Every structure is written in C-alpha cells, then in structure tokens.
C-alpha cells in the first residue's frame, strides 16, 4: 500500500543527493583561513556565450555582474548581497564553476642594495645570450602584471607611450586607495600605472633595465605594465583575484607575447581561477611566466597559483653558486652538534663537526 510513496521518496532523495554533489563540484569552498571579499565571486561559464549567461545572472535577485571576461576566460566578476547563498550562482544555467573572490596582499620588506648584478648575468646566461646570440628582446612584447612602474626612471626609458618609448602597453586597474581589509574597497584607477611601492619597478628593471647601472634580460623589448596592486596601507599592498584577472585578460587582449606575474598565492591547484586563465592564455599561443612563491622552505606542494597552471612557466630560485652548503643541528650523547659541509658539488666532501652555538 505504501510502496509507491516510498519509491517516490527514494527518487527525490537520490535526485537531491546528485544535485548537492553537482553544486559541490561547481562551487569552490576555500578553507576558513583564506580571506575573501564578502559578496564578491568569480563565475566561469560552460561556453563562450558570456553575454547571454551574464545577462541571465543579472536577472537574479541581489546579483549584479560587475565585469565580463571574454578574451581568455569565459566568465564574469559578480557582486551579490552578502547574505546570498552562492549555491544560487552555481546552480544558474550555463555556470561551470564559482569561486569566492580571494584577497591577496604583498608585505613591504626592506632590503639592502647588492653589487653582484654582473655575477648574476654571468651565472644565469644572460650575458651569453646578449653577447654571443645577439638577443635583447627586440620585437617582443613583454607585459608585467604587478604594482605598477616608475616609468620616469631614466634606466626604464623615462617615458610613457610616446614615440620610441619602450612602454607602449598597459594601464591601471586599481588606483591608490584600494584596501581589501575594508568591506567595500575603493577602486579608482589612475590614468597611468604609476608604481607607489617599487615591486613592479624592480621587476621591470630585471626584465628590461637599459643601464648603465642595471641592464635587464631584454632591454630591447616593447613593454607593458598592468597595475593590480594598490599603494601601501599599514605596511601592506592589497589586491584580489578579480583585479589580477582583469590585468591578465587586458595583457592578452593587447597582444602581449609574454605575460610576467611575479605574484601568486592561495592553494597551488590548476583549478585556481588565475591558473585557469593562465592556461587558457597559453593555449591561445601566449607565454605566461609566474613566480613559484616564497614558501619553498615549508615543504612540498607550496608552489602558488598561477605558477601551477597548465603550460605556465613557474619560476623559482635557489642560492647555489656551484657550492653545496648544508647545516644540520642534532643531539648526540655528547651534546648538541652542528654538521657542516661547504665545498664544490661533490659527494666525497666529508661532514665537519663543530660545537653548536646557542641561539639564545
């Protein structure tokens, strides 16, 4: 007598379970310690009919499409009520995946000037490429997604988008007032991507410094700067995934041959939105170079996104000038000891034991 209602209940439960599993795959949930902007999401669509799907999202209550990404990422940046269940976005027709808009910060660090640039060029092969092969980047568009650039610096051209100037591409996406600690960060882009911190200028010098003090890897390249970091607030620069992705898309749209991102963060997964966008740019024929991150001493799986994107060139650094250096502190019955070795990269160099030096 009760068989039919029972079967209907089973069908409903199975359908609900399948629906929940589908939504789970389409909505990315970050761990609690990952900072995100409340009510801000990155939505990826299933196909390239971006405007159709974005218009559909705009019909939803408490949902507003802020920016449509159409060049290398079929998606949109969406603002919602802070109380809206993101599952509503994930269940909308045409939606492939939804990410919370993750915050990023760049801590200000003080350093000292080094005088070993000639040695760096010698060890990395830059001098050989320039002198023997005659390669200096001429004819190549190299674009940087970073904190901006001091384009008035004499060794970086001292100009912006004038005839004969190396800086022919780029713009500002964030302005000077952005602070993602705020619930409603202010985005007021400037007319030019002027650097008020120095990170982007430093990167630009490595890539294309024209000397005489600093000569970059490709001083003859045509350059672009896409500013995605704000000015300093309490010792930190801020941005978020959506702004970084807008800068990347613009660089791709402008025809940049190489897009450099000396930035990264979040989990090192190919499903990260910046990794997905980077992989799409590579598939379209571009070259994306990204920093592996600064967390290598924390162990494996610490490479950040977008460096882990498919086809992306992830760049890391080690301190090794053809010399092996190992220091290990351990305890023995005779007391604490330090095992040291320093010499050519050979396997037959013995350990030398010295008495440990107290750190406190």
TrEMBL record:
Signal peptide (UniProt feature, chain positions): 1-21
GO biological process, one term: proteolysis
Transmembrane segment boundaries: none
Record's keyword terms, sorted: Hydrolase, Protease, Serine protease, Signal
Gene3D superfamilies per the UniProt record, alphabetical: Peptidase S8/S53 domain
Pfam families assigned to the protein according to its UniProt record, in alphabetical order: Peptidase_S8
Peptidase S8/S53 domain boundaries: 137-332
Gene Ontology MF: a single term: serine-type endopeptidase activity
Domain of life: Eukaryota
PROSITE patterns listed in its UniProt record: SUBTILASE, SUBTILASE_ASP, SUBTILASE_HIS
Family membership noted in the UniProt record: Belongs to the peptidase S8 family.
Name of the protein in its database record: Peptidase S8/S53 domain-containing protein
Source organism of the structure: Coemansia brasiliensis
């Amino acid at each position: 007598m009760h068989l039919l209602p029972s079967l209907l209940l089973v069908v409903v439960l199975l359908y609900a379970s399948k629906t929940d599993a589908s939504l789970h795959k389409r909505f990315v949930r970050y761990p609690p310690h990952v900072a995100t902007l409340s009510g801000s999401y990155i939505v990826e669509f299933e196909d390239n009919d971006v405007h159709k799907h974005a218009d559909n999202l705009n019909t939803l209550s408490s949902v507003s499409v802020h920016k449509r990404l159409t060049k290398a990422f079929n998606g949109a940046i969406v603002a919602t009520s802070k109380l809206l269940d993101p599952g509503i976005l994930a269940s909308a027709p045409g939606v492939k995946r939804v990410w919370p808009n993750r915050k990023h910060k760049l801590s200000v660090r003080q350093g000292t000037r080094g005088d070993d640039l000639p040695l760096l060029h010698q060890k990395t092969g830059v001098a050989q490429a320039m002198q023997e092969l005659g390669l200096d980047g001429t004819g190549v568009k190299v674009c940087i997604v970073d904190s901006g650039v001091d384009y008035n610096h004499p060794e970086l051209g001292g100009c912006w988008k004038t005839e004969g100037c190396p800086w022919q591409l780029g713009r500002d996406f964030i302005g000077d007032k952005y602070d993602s600690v705020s619930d409603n960060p202010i985005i007021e882009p400037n007319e030019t991507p002027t650097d008020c911190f120095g990170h982007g200028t430093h990167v630009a010098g490595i890539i294309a410094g024209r000397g005489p003090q600093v000569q970059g890897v490709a001083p003859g390249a045509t350059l672009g700067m896409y500013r995605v970091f704000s000015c300093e607030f309490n010792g930190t620069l801020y941005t978020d995934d959506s702004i970084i992705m807008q800068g990347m898309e613009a660089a791709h749209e402008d025809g940049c041959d190489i897009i450099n991102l000396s930035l990264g963060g979040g989990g090192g997964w190919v499903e990260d939105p910046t990794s997905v966008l980077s992989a799409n740019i590579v598939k379209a024929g571009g070259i994306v170079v990204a920093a592996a991150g600064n967390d290598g001493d924390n162990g494996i799986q610490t490479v950040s996104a977008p460096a882990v994107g498919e086809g992306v060139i992830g760049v890391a650094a080690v301190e090794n000038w053809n010399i092996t250096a190992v220091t290990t502190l351990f305890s023995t019955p005779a007391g604490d000891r330090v095992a040291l070795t320093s010499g050519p990269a050979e396997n037959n160099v013995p350990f030398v034991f010295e008495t440990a030096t107290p750190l406190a």
